[in-house]
Design a protein that fits this description.
CATH superfamily of chain A: Winged helix-like DNA-binding domain superfamily/Winged helix DNA-binding domain
Number of domains of chain A: 1
Largest interface: A-B, 35 and 35 residues
Strand content of chain A: 5-15%
CATH topology of chain A: Arc Repressor Mutant, subunit A
Low-confidence stretches of chain A: none
Helix content of chain A: 40-55%
Oligomer: homodimer
GO molecular function, one term (chains A, B): DNA-binding transcription factor activity
Keywords (chains A, B): DNA-binding, Transcription, Transcription regulation
Protein name (chains A, B): Metalloregulator ArsR/SmtB family transcription factor
Radius of gyration of chain A: 15 Å
Organism (chains A, B): Halotia branconii CENA392
Mean pLDDT of chain A: 90
InterPro entries (chains A, B): ArsR-like_HTH (IPR011991), HTH_ArsR_DNA-bd_dom (IPR001845), HTH_MetalResp_TranReg (IPR051081), WH-like_DNA-bd_sf (IPR036388), WH_DNA-bd_sf (IPR036390)
Chain lengths: ~110, ~110
């Protein structure tokens, strides 16, 4: 099994010294990804799965959103480095990038 | 010295179970506050002060933004519970609400 993930800049600590303008822009972009309630629900649903992964098909049923909407949110979170993905036949499966969430946690340390 | 802060809902853990729609909306609203680079720079500047506080006047000089813009960002972060404030004479001084940042950190645990 080989999940793929993009390399995107992440996450300068907020309280460990003055952020540069570039660091602030990168970090703000990551928070922008998280300011959609549906995306937060998707992350919590993925984390709640016994195998820690979902395909888009499972989220459509759980969240009552359309397939294109779900796919769009998954794509945005994948491109932000919050999710990794693997294609298996027809479906793409997504997992949370735990290291990315740990880095986000450290932003507030 | 008595800093005041508003009581606003905060911060359901993202990975500890399925978020309810209401929890997702509250958490997304908090991330919306953080998706402005200037606000992140302001938080890091406040944290970098030796006395951990600033007045708006000090931020105007450091960030090169107008006084009304700075005041708007401070008000938004105060109302989101990220900052507490105290009036002293002409100026209002702001501090980071450490408990709030700790709660945000726990969102990613």
């Amino acid at each position: 099994m080989k999940f793929s993930k993009p390399l995107t800049p992440c996450c300068s600590p907020l309280l460990a010294g003055k952020l540069t303008p570039e660091e602030a822009v990168q970090l703000a972009a990551l928070f922008r990804v998280l300011n959609e309630p549906a995306r937060l629900q998707m992350l919590s649903l993925i984390a709640a799965q016994s195998n820690q992964e979902v395909c888009a098909c499972e989220l459509v049923e759980s969240l009552g959103l359309s397939q294109p909407t779900i796919s769009h949110h998954l794509k945005v979170m994948y491109e932000a480095g919050l999710l990794e993905k693997e294609r298996r036949g027809t479906w793409i499966y997504y997992r949370i990038v735990q290291a990315r969430l740990a880095a986000l946690k450290d932003v507030f340390s």
